[in-house]
């Protein structure tokens, strides 16, 4: 089942759709928390602040979208019962972070705050590339059936984030494209696992 079909199936069932929105909210919130956790005590730029706040907004916005298909009270937390593919959804970002850190330690011998910052750049870059692909496919599936749920404001901000990550990566390393490619390779594996786990919940 491809991503488009997975989304079509999810959207067709309101309560499953609500769980999916809660799951996307969890993943956005995990992203926001990761960005904040990677911040240096003092060297926090305008772009990093902007990014952390927008990811937190995405988490909140997706949670609020639940009311268009179900009751928000039915999805009070991010506990397993309120999610689709909980394990794959929880581990997606953490695993990406762990693998990218391992890669950076091995290839660039980074440690401490330098490692934290470089991991922030590469992990976030890979996620933004994915977000720029995933959200438009989801929005198309929503439009197809005239759903009241919409993620257009997220799409606009994610496009901005990708451009901002490229800008920061260029300042970080001349060789940024090779590192970014490696991060995307790692991410693809984890994303494929996630979509398999989503598809498994549909049958
Ligand atoms: Fe986001
Ligand atoms: Fe983003």
Number of separate strands:
0
Mean pLDDT: 96
Tell me about the largest β-sheet: none
Q: In sequence order, what are the helices and strands, one letter per element?
A: HHHHHHH
Helix percent reads over 70%
Structural class: mainly alpha
Low-confidence stretches: none
Quote the beta fraction: under 5%
- Number of alpha- plus pi-helical segments: 7
Radius of gyration: 17 Å
Instruction: Write down the oligomeric state.
Output: single chain
Hetero groups in this structure are: fe (ii) ion
End-to-end CA span: 11 Å
Overall geometry: globular
Report on this model:
This protein is an all-alpha fold. It has helices at 3-11, 14-38, 46-65, 86-108, 112-144, 152-172, 176-202. The protein starts with a helix and ends with a helix. The structure holds fe (ii) ion (2 copies). One fe (ii) ion binds next to helix 5 and helix 6. One fe (ii) ion (FE2) binds at residues 28, 31, 55, 58, 131, 154, 158.
């Amino acid at each position: 089942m491809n991503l488009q079909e997975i989304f079509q199936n999810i959207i067709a069932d309101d309560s499953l759709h609500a769980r999916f929105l809660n799951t996307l909210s969890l993943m956005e919130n995990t992203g926001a928390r990761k960005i904040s956790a990677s911040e240096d005590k003092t060297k926090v730029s305008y772009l990093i602040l902007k990014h952390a706040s927008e990811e937190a907004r995405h988490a909140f916005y997706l949670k609020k979208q639940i009311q268009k298909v179900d009751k928000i009270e039915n999805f009070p937390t991010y506990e397993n019962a309120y999610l689709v593919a909980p394990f794959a959804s929880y581990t997606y970002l953490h695993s990406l972070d762990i693998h990218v850190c391992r890669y950076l330690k091995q290839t660039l011998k980074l440690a401490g705050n330098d490692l934290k910052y470089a991991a922030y750049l590469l992990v976030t870059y890979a996620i933004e590339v994915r977000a720029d692909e995933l959200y438009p496919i989801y929005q198309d599936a929503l439009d197809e059936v005239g759903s009241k749920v919409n993620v257009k404001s997220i799409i606009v901000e994610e496009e901005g984030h990708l451009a901002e990550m490229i800008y920061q990566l260029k300042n970080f390393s001349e060789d940024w494209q090779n590192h970014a490619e490696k991060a995307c390779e790692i991410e693809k594996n984890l994303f494929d696992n996630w979509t398999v786990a989503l598809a498994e919940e549909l049958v």
